[in-house]
Amino acid sequence: MSAAPGNELRIIGFLCNWCSYGGADTAGVGRMTQPTDLRIIRVPCSGRIDPLFVLKALVNGADGVLVSGCHPRDCHYAEGNFYARRRLEVLKRFLQVLGIDERRFEYTWVSASEGQRWQEVVQKFTERIHELGPAPKITPDQMAMAETMAAQPR
């Protein structure tokens, strides 16, 4: 089931301020065509993204979530993207446990000078979400389970 032409799906993008947001801006300044489904939330660093942000976005009606940060070893905060990668990889595996198709979530690295790469990443992700169609509703029980597991000591 895919969205009808002209119907936008809700796709949330958490982008780090220093690199990925700059890459999206570079693509925009370069007048590269980009899907309009993506709603960008700028964060200081991908390392500041709690996996519950992604889960809550999906619970509250997002059809897909994209997280993008600086390339490894290029993080403005030295190690933020290493922390992000570790957390987001665990989250990706955890989505299956909740019954959420893991293809609805992706994380990637894009620098401020990579407008072309940003365009490709967002185009591919948006196409995938359109192929999957609108996300099924997540039940309160699924969310309670996610919050319980996330609250466990790490």
CATH class: Alpha Beta
Q: What is the molecular shape?
A: globular
Give the biggest sheet: 4 strands, parallel
Structural class: alpha/beta
CATH architecture: 3-Layer(aba) Sandwich
Pick out the low-confidence regions: none
What's the total count of β strands? 4
Beta-strand content: 5-15%
Give the count of structural domains. Answer: 1
Helix content: 40-55%
Order of the strands making up the biggest sheet: 2-1-3-4
Average pLDDT confidence is 88
Could you outline the blueprint of secondary structure elements for this entry?
Blueprint: E1 11-16, H1 20-29, E2 38-43, H2 51-59, E3 64-69, H3 80-98, E4 105-109, H4 115-132, H5 140-151
Parallel strand pairs: 1-2, 1-3, 3-4
Task: Give an overview of the whole structure.
This protein has a single domain, classed as 3-Layer(aba) Sandwich (Rossmann fold). The protein has a four-stranded parallel β-sheet, with helices on both faces. It has five helices and four strands. The model has no long low-confidence stretch (mean pLDDT 88). The chain is globular. It has helices at residues 20-29, 51-59, 80-98, 115-132, 140-151, and strands spanning 11-16, 38-43, 64-69, 105-109.
